[in-house]
Specification:
612 residues; alpha+beta; 7-stranded parallel beta sheet; 6-stranded mixed beta barrel; 11 helices; 16% helix; globular
Length: 612
């Protein structure tokens, strides 16, 4: 076991630049404590215990040698997609140096930002290959707090279960990132990881040692040499707005590696699978979705699994030509061929030479992006495979959407053509089980505070008709998902007639929907209950509200955060029935608006402002 011990003296307090987050007790084999200043109160957030790595070899514990001076760190960069285009953050960093009696050096790089903490382990100068068996880092919370955690699954597709205090069968489970904890009244922390590089596997949490003790568990042991860095362990800390609006995951991730990003064009996509599970092997059905995209002025159509067997009047080449005639850009689905599903096309991306040949063909026929599906869990080889696909796709100007895959861990900054990732219990599950019917409303009100915080989320929202199992959320709720959920490629899941049947104002809204945001604000909400989110694009603010309960609920919208003069407001609210809209215009002088929502209802508000 390779744990940090203390020998020597160092400052044991590290603060964020704004003074709100304080880390005490570093360096210490017992770990350190994180607190948050709420007014005049210092709120305990989490104790991080058992700091260190466990090696495969029998090594003695490290002892503290010395530490670097505290230095400021500042992140200031531009994103192609995400919560906001221009991202900034400030923090303080200190590096603690340790060594064992075999002269193996270990650094703990620790940062305290204004909206959270991030730390990682670094082996700076290994003289020989060593094996890392695992990590001992443990996030120890107080018993009895409320938490929203998802049981670990291969595709990160399950509900974020809300629990408070002791809950049957809660302990001794594995939990996927991210995990949200309400550590005190209106003080939250969201724990995840970021910046997985080559040679890293993914990780998750387990609480085998105690109900409120969450240990970082690596997906597999690692053999490392030279310089090795673990991913960043990240805890976003503050109010719910601080958590939801944070860009800390990308702040600590590697900068953009592309010199030219002009070809990356986010947008809305027509998507076939939700209504027709095997529709992409039918040329006539594919044409129907291309026509829908053209009718609604959508830039993209996704031709999904089994397109390599397309028949009924045409093949994939015919479909690509038809899309070009309709001025719609196609995206194509691929199987990662690493896991359990045998839908085709298969084995076209696994080897560099076949992958690049396929990508060259895609670029030559006007395909603008790929969806790659069905990945094996978070092993090192799969993480490297993600990066192989991203790096080769960039050479051929192909945007990428990963499905049946791990959650985002900051790659949307490093590889900005990574437009979206599934890793979510999304609308396609109406195909699979009946459980989403009764749970979708509260589930949709949990995702903005959990999964969507860490990166783009391809939920495939906004369905007005039914798939295999019915939905009971209102049409207003469904429309609001397009604003509340962030994804650079926003796939419209419903069948074309579901959209054509909506009022003209709603059709126009969908036709002009942006998927790139200059800013994001959480206006109101509580996980699993309700959410009101605002996002800005150009001279418009889009406000989406969701009622996650089975009762009618008024949602308050305070527009005083908007600095510009408001020209006008269009409200797309619930009608008298759940399948109806009430569309009306509001005065630009109204800064506080109350919107009445049906059970499991919602609304969208489009706020036009004067240019600044």
């Amino acid at each position: 076991m390779f744990l940090i011990g203390v020998s020597g003296k160092a400052s044991d307090v590290l603060r964020s630049p704004n003074g709100k987050i304080v880390v005490s007790g570093v360096p210490s084999a017992k770990g350190f404590k994180v607190s948050y200043k709420k007014g005049n109160e210092a709120v305990p957030v989490v104790d991080i215990n058992n700091v260190g790595l466990q090696f495969l070899q029998a090594d003695t514990d490290c002892v503290y040698v010395d530490s670097s001076p505290v230095v400021p760190v500042e992140e200031d960069y531009t994103m192609v997609t995400g919560k906001r285009r221009h991202c900034t953050n400030q923090g303080n960093q200190q590096v603690f140096h340790f060594k064992n009696d075999r002269d193996v050096c270990l650094d703990l790089e620790f940062r305290v930002y204004n909206d959270g903490i991030a730390f990682r382990y670094v082996l700076p100068e290994l003289k020989e290959e060593i094996g890392i068996a695992g990590e001992k880092t443990t996030f120890q919370f107080q018993d009895g707090i409320t938490r929203w955690t998802q049981k670990l699954s291969q595709a990160y597709e399950d509900f974020y279960l809300k629990s408070k205090g002791r809950v049957a069968d809660y302990s001794k489970n594995q939990w996927g990132f991210p995990a949200l904890f309400e550590v005190s009244d209106a003080v939250f922390t969201l724990v995840s990881e970021a910046n997985i590089g080559r040679g890293n596997c993914g990780s998750w949490l387990n609480n085998v040692s105690g109900e409120s003790a969450y240990q970082v568990e690596m997906a597999q042991p690692a053999k490392v040499s030279g310089k090795w860095c673990s991913p960043w362990r990240v805890a976003i800390i503050g109010s719910l707005a601080d958590v939801v609006e944070s860009t800390l995951i990308t702040d600590v991730s590697e900068p953009c590696r592309l010199t030219d990003v002009s070809w990356i064009k986010p947008g809305v996509v027509s998507w076939i699978y939700w209504a027709y599970n095997h529709g992409s092997n039918d040329y006539q059905i594919v044409k129907k979705y291309i026509d829908f995209a053209a009718d609604f002025h959508l830039p993209y159509v996704l031709i999904d699994a089994e397109w390599d067997g397309m028949a009924n009047g045409g093949n994939v080449d015919d479909a690509l030509r038809y899309a070009k005639e309709k001025h719609v850009s196609p995206l194509l689905w691929y199987n990662s061929s690493t896991a359990w599903c045998l839908y085709g096309p298969l084995y076209r991306l696994n080897k560099p030479e076949t992958r690049q040949k396929e990508f060259a063909w895609l670029e030559s026929v006007g395909v603008k992006g790929i969806k790659v599906d069905f990945f094996h869990p978070d092993s090192t080889s799969v993480m490297n495979y993600f990066m192989d696909i991203l790096e080769d796709a960039a050479k051929y100007h192909l945007m990428v959407n990963f499905h049946g895959a791990t959650i985002p861990r900051g790659w949307q900054r490093t590889y900005p053509h990574m437009m979206s990732v599934e890793g979510v219990y999304g609308a396609e599950w109406y195909n699979n089980k009946e459980v989403l019917t009764d749970s979708a409303a509260w589930h949709n009100c949990t995702l903005p505070f959990t999964r969507n915080v860490v990166g783009p989320m391809d939920y495939t929202p906004c369905t007005f008709t039914d798939s295999q199992h019915p939905h009971i959320t209102s049409n207003g709720h469904e429309l609001a998902l397009l604003v509340v959920f962030e994804s650079a490629l926003q796939h419209l899941a419903d069948r074309p007639e579901g959209y054509h049947a909506q009022p003209a104002e709603v059709r126009s809204f969908i036709s002009s929907l942006p998927t790139v945001w200059e800013d994001t604000k959480l206006l109101d909400g509580y996980p699993s209950h309700h959410v009101v989110m605002a996002r800005k694009n150009g001279n418009c603010w889009y406000v989406g509200g969701l009622n996650g309960t089975n009762e009618s609920m008024p949602l308050a919208v305070d527009l005083s955060f908007i600095p510009e003069t408001i020209k006008g407001i269009t409200l797309y609210a619930d009608g008298r029935e759940s399948n109806q809209f009430a569309v009306r215009n509001l005065s630009g002088t109204e800064k506080n608006v109350q919107v009445d929502c049906l059970p499991r209802g919602g609304f969208v508000m489009k706020v036009e402002v004067e240019p600044q």
